Amino acid sequence: MIYAEMMKPTLEDFGRNGRLEEQAILRMLENISCYHSDSLGLGAADMEQTHLAWILLEWKVRILKNMTYGKHYRLTTWSRGMASFCTTLRDFEIYDEAGELCVAASSKWTPVDSVSKKLIRITDELLDVYGTEEKAVFEGDGLIRLKEPKVYEWETPYRVRRSEIDLNGHVHNLCYLDFALEALPEEIYHARDFHDIRITYRKEISAGEKDIVLKCHAENGVYTVGIYGADGILRALVELK
Hints:
Order of helices and strands: EHHEEEEHEHHEEEE
Helix content: 10-25%
Number of strands: 10
Shape: globular
Largest sheet: 10 strands, antiparallel
């Protein structure tokens, strides 16, 4: 089943250079994945009955064409089935009003019990509800987990804000991209024109944690940011190029 929605980015989604911000693109993708689950009776509003929650493990996003203010975009998403007994794949595409492909993306998720917080084994019944499609936006295995750089050139302390905690009681997954952008040098942050985004989530940052450390490595125009808790444990890796 391919699910589709029309969306129109708002003014706050655009940066100084007139480009749609990377965070806004991820937010659009996250929202349509939620709308898809909502339409099947497996969304956030149904969690009290289903106890089903989805935890995001990986993102791979390729920006093929910059999106502009004042335009409508058609988003499509679909389940690609199991990656393992407890993980599943979901792909996305964003098209402009002329039908040109602007963004292709893939993601990996795992279902958990919202009460016990334990992983849920993916069943054929669950896959049947989502209607698995064979179509893939990337060839091969594009969601191999990112690896920590051997060295980081600089690091930045960061204080987690209360507004970054989501309904699950930990830092919302889109905030990790914000953290990575915050770690970039000033001149790179403002002049950036990234077309590929990869995120590997390792461990959540809970509501009780306040201080984290952002460590950045740059090589051949690729910026890799490691996000670490105060305990030194890696929480996520973000790669921008």
